[in-house]
């Protein structure tokens, strides 16, 4: 069942590659603007790198969130998903996983390459990648709640950002904190563990409130 | 099998209908009629548990549908106003993926046969956004060809279809009823479904001129 939902969403995403590519280029460009704007001072760049990369990752994730349920809502597929014999939460979990594969995983892959612009050491690059790998699923999970709550609302995109970005703050703090801790010589383990806890919570608990919000949106 | 008692629907401040009751058994079809805005779609959505009824109760095989949950949904096939097909996918992919999501076994040959039956032969591999309105509706209705679930709830199934396709769909509903299934549908077209015990339900004003005697 989970496989059916993930497979369907991945196939749809492959037919609309422009969306994925746009979010990736947004990430690349936002991250690259900072070294250009701030100037080539390695110390300063190193210090700001974790924050810049993580904030850019949050914003790039936000780009793809509004469409998580909106397309299914518009063409009536969401009703069919709601009426499927499985619990709606499981279907939402499938959609969250597919969203991460399409919107989160590319960021993880791009991050180490972009990190080089900030003169990050290989240790820091590794921790950055790992922190994104652990943290981005939480972004998809938490984002799904916001996407479901703003479904069918006019101007939902802005409302979605206002709703979801504050909820991303813990992920941002621990994600960027892990890289900071590596740079300052402390171990990143504590931050990464907390990030992992957030991700588990985000991915496995978020589908249920999301399902409830979707039912309300369909009434 | 399907019983509704004293259903009431309120949209905004307005009560659309109240005191709607009916009972439907295997092999019977309920034909919901009424003016535009009389609450036909709302009633159908209530029967699917998509919209909660303000008051009243709907029972399936004796149990309230809200409590039955998955047990009820696995016997329900709903086709709404919207076609529920993905524009980016082909009719074949749409049919296969909706069958997988409904946890029905449908192999590719059966799906191709179903699409041929609804007149989409040669269009199986064309993304649905290139199809006409009527062809999209046909792609959506292809689901009914191999549909084994007992209760069909169809909202305006004949919209955008040409006469031949309307007859085909009416035939599919007829076959379903003969096999002991139930169907609830709304339509503004007078279409006779073969071999069906039809019950009619009028929604809206209890205006005598609206009600055929």
Can you walk me through this structure?
The complex is a heterodimer of chains A (219) and B (213). With 219 residues, chain A is mainly alpha-helical. Chain A has one domain. Chain B folds into two domains: 138 residues, Rossmann fold (3-Layer(aba) Sandwich); 63 residues, no CATH class. In chain B, the strands form two sheets. Chain B has a five-stranded parallel sheet with strand order 6-7-8-3-9, sandwiched between helices. Chain B is 29% helix and 26% strand. Chain B has 213 residues and is of the alpha/beta class. Chain B is built from seven helices and nine strands. At the A-B interface, α1 and α5 of A face α4 of B.
The gist of it:
With 219 residues, chain A is mostly helical.
List keywords for this structure.
heterodimer; A: 219 residues; mainly alpha; B: 213 residues; Rossmann fold; 7 helices; 9 strands; transport (chain B)
* Main pleated sheet of chain A: none
Beta-strand level of the residues of chain B, as a percent range?
A: 25-35%
CATH homologous superfamily annotation of the largest domain in chain B: P-loop containing nucleotide triphosphate hydrolases
Q: Give the largest interface pair and sizes.
A: A-B, 25 and 27 residues
Radius of gyration computed on alpha carbons of chain A: 18 Å
Helix count of chain A, per DSSP?
10
Overall spatial form of chain B: globular
Structural class of chain A: mainly alpha
Whole-number average pLDDT of chain B?
A: 86
Instruction: Name the CATH architecture of the largest domain in chain B.
Output: 3-Layer(aba) Sandwich
| Low confidence ranges of chain B | 207-213
Low-confidence stretches of chain A: none
CATH topology of the largest domain in chain B: Rossmann fold
Amino- and carboxy-terminal Cα gap of chain A = 25 Å
Secondary structure class of chain B reads alpha/beta
Overall CATH class of the largest domain in chain B: Alpha Beta
Secondary structure tally: strands of chain B: 9
- H-E string of chain A: HHHHHHHHHH
Radius of gyration of chain B: 17 Å
């Amino acid at each position: 069942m989970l496989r059916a939902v993930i497979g369907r969403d991945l196939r749809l995403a492959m037919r609309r590659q422009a969306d994925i590519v746009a979010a990736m280029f947004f990430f690349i460009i936002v991250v690259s603007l900072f070294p250009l704007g701030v100037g080539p001072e390695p110390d300063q760049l190193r210090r700001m790198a974790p924050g810049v990369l993580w904030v850019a990752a949050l914003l790039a994730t936000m780009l793809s969130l509004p469409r998580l349920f909106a397309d299914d809502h518009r063409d009536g597929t969401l009703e069919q998903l709601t009426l499927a014999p499985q619990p709606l939460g499981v279907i939402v979990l499938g959609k969250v996983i597919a969203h991460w594969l399409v919107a989160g995983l590319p960021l993880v892959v791009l991050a180490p390459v972009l990190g080089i612009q900030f003169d990050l050491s290989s240790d820091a690059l590794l921790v950055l990648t790992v922190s994104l790998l652990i943290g981005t699923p939480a972004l998809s999970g938490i984002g799904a709640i916001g996407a479901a709550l703003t479904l069918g609302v006019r101007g939902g995109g802005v409302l979605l950002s206002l709703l979801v970005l504050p909820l991303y703050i813990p992920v941002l703090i621990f994600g960027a904190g892990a890289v900071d801790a590596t740079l300052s010589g402390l171990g990143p383990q504590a931050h990464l563990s907390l990030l992992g806890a957030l991700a588990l919570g985000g991915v496995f608990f978020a589908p249920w409130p999301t399902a409830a919000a979707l039912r309300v949106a369909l009434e | 099998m399907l019983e509704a008692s004293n259903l009431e629907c309120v949209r905004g401040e307005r009560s659309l209908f109240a005191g709607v009751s009916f009972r439907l058994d295997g092999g019977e079809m309920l034909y919901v009629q009424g003016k535009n805005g009389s609450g036909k779609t709302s009633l159908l959505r209530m029967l699917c548990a998509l919209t909660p009824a303000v008051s009243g109760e709907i029972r399936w095989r004796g149990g309230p549908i809200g409590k039955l949950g998955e047990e009820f949904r696995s016997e329900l096939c709903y086709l709404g106003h919207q076609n529920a097909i993905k524009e980016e996918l082909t009719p074949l992919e749409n049919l296969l993926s909706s069958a997988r999501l409904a946890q029905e076994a449908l192999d590719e040959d059966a799906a191709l046969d179903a699409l041929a039956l609804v007149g989409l032969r040669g269009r199986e591999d064309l993304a649905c956004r290139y199809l006409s309105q009527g062809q999209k509706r046909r792609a959506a209705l292809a689901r009914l060809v191999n549909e084994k679930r007992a209760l069909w709830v169809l909202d305006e199934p004949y919209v955008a279809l040409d006469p031949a396709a309307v007859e085909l769909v009416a035939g599919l509903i007829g076959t379903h009823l003969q096999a002991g299934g139930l169907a609830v549908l709304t339509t503004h077209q007078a279409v006779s479904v073969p071999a069906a015990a039809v019950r009619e339900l009028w929604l809206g004003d209890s205006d005598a001129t609206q009600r055929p005697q």
